[in-house]
Hints:
Layout: H1 26-30, E1 33-37, E2 43-46, H2 48-54, H3 58-61, H4 66-70, H5 76-89, E3 93-100, E4 106-117, E5 123-131, H6 132-151, E6 155-159, E7 165-168, H7 170-176, H8 180-183, H9 188-191, H10 197-210, E8 214-221, E9 231-241, E10 247-256, H11 258-283, H12 290-301, E11 308-314, H13 315-318, E12 330-339, H14 345-348, E13 355-358, H15 363-370, E14 374-376, H16 381-387, H17 391-399, E15 404-412, E16 415-424, H18 433-470, E17 482-488, E18 499-505, E19 511-518, H19 523-540, H20 546-559, E20 565-573, E21 578-584, E22 590-592, E23 599-600, E24 618-622, E25 628-632, H21 644-656, H22 662-673, E26 682-688
Antiparallel strand pairs: 1-2, 1-5, 3-4, 4-5, 6-7, 6-10, 8-9, 9-10, 11-12, 11-16, 12-13, 14-15, 15-16, 17-26, 18-19, 19-20, 20-21, 21-24, 22-23, 22-25, 25-26
Amino acid sequence: MGDGASDPARPGRGADRSVIMPAGVLLDLLGVCAVVLDHRGRIVLWSPQAEDVFGYSAEEALGQYAASLLVSAKDHDLVNGLFAQVMTTGTPWAGAFPVVRRDGSRRLVEFRNMRLEDDEGAVYALGMAADQSQLRELEAALALSDQLVSQSPVGLALLDHDLRYVLVNPALERINGRPAADHIGRHPRDLLTSLDVEEIENTLRSVLETGVPVMDRHVVGRTAAAPDEDHAWSVSYYRLEGANGQILGVANAVVDITERHRAAAEAERGRRRLALLADASTRIGTTLEVERTAQELADVLVPEIADIAAVDILDAALELRRGEEGEGPRRFRALGFASAYPNRVAAAADRIGSLAAYRAERLITRCATTGRPIMVTHTGPEDLAHIARNPEAAQLLAEAGVHSYLAVPLIAHNQVLGVVDLVRARNPVPFDQDDLLLAGELAARTAIAVDNARWHQSVRTAAETLQRSLLPGPLPPLHGLAVACRYQPAQSSSQVGGDWYDVLPLDGGRTALVVGDVMGHGIDAAAAMGRLRTATQAYADLALHPAEILHRLDRTAFDLETHIATCVYAVYDPYRHVCRIANAGHMPPVLIARGEPPRLVPLPSGVPLGVGGVHYSTTEIAFGPGDRLVLYTDGLVETRGDPIDDRLEQLLRLLSEPQGSLDEVCTRLLEGLSGPGVADDVALLIAEVPETDGADAPA
């Protein structure tokens, strides 16, 4: 042998040169033995395996006549005749024949006999023999193995060391959609082009090298058997080894689990949708604001249901008007938009807060007009033209890859309030009936929240409008006093109404400063506030002491029956530079004397107006040039979670900052003290005596 024989090739390679192949094991399993007889029928060669079959050692068998040693006397003639036939004609003979073993037992042995000649012309008979029972067992095992492979519903394949198919059973033929002949000698990558073949071959190679099997790995994809439909398979890989430890190759078993996979996917989809509904119940309708609610719906829908979602509310619904009749255009206000990833579709959508008239042929308009959802499973250019507001927007949708569309109406109490429209672009799965049902459920819940929000906003707007109409307009000219006032309505409609301020010029150059708070909210509180303010103006003209003013207001509030109020009433005298103050259960004013830190004015708090039969007292404080007085309602400092003393300290800290204009200080206080815990409306009044007030005593 040449040098090249020292590096035998692995199976499957080196087809163009001689190679030493690994030995098989089938002959070892059969236990085949060899016996050579000379022309007279004497044993001249005896293999070691022959002792296992016949029981005689070589020393005992060599030189003996085979017929006399191995066959019973009654079979001698038959055996000799068969031997003569092989030796004279050269025709091989095969068959099973009973032999007598050394221990006297009889055994059926299968023979293959043939004639041999040496270089000198001598003739011999070669007999190959194996125990027939062992042979039949092996044949049965092979037949059974063949049937198991060929009839198995599990796809089975054997690949060699180079990962080329060696064996493929009919089940795998059906799974891969190719006959076995197309597999043999080829790699998986040549056939399974629609699967992740690189991962498959890497796994096969790892199993072949390590011997560690990989069990029940799920693979999803398509084969030639169903090129337009995804299937799922459970795949196992394991290394095959012979009886002598020789590695035969790597096998894989494939079970189609498509139905199980789909059922599991559907169950998971249902679980996720239930979770989405549960999540939506906590995320949608967190406030009584239409705009916030619409955006919350868009945020919930993306990316679980759609890649892009937009929520548009009918302008008529926002204004609590009856919607337009007929098939004409509708006016929508864009209030919600969400996208799962950056794209150009945002440029095709209406700007949040903008109002637009949508033509009758647009799908969103048709959805609002009919009150029924619209689903376009696969959108084409004509569909996009009816989805977008103009051709340019339709082109943006096409470029973004929009391929499926769904519009669902927002309906509450049989009134269409708006429409949510959804599109899919990156998500390749089109909308289906399940998506429609889920989006419809979310839209129904949102519609109730939107309906509640719009009515609350209407009540809030009415209360705020009434409240502002009852507050003073532009401040009148004042003698020796500068004043800034602010009213900030509560964020919640249920908290609007009841707070007021007033600045009243009095005889003798004096000025009355009033801040009050009717306990209660809404339109009724605003109306009660208006009556108290009117009464305050009337009593102020009587030139009464502040305590007497509050006493009379107490009787007025008592007549209102259902309302009580707090109030602080102050009168500034610019000639004496004093301020006389009376308090009816109200928050203490803050005095910022020139050159001194802010401090709370210690007043007898009194009781609220409306209790009846209560006497109030008047406190006089110095209030000179450069001094400031801050009056406010409790909505500025009271919160649900903070102690009132801490909030008052915060108020004083804000007033300790460098002084700006009165308006700047008002803004600082409202911004610095407002927050999520502040739910009440606020009335704020700051008065200042100018450094040079120019006030002269009356003649």
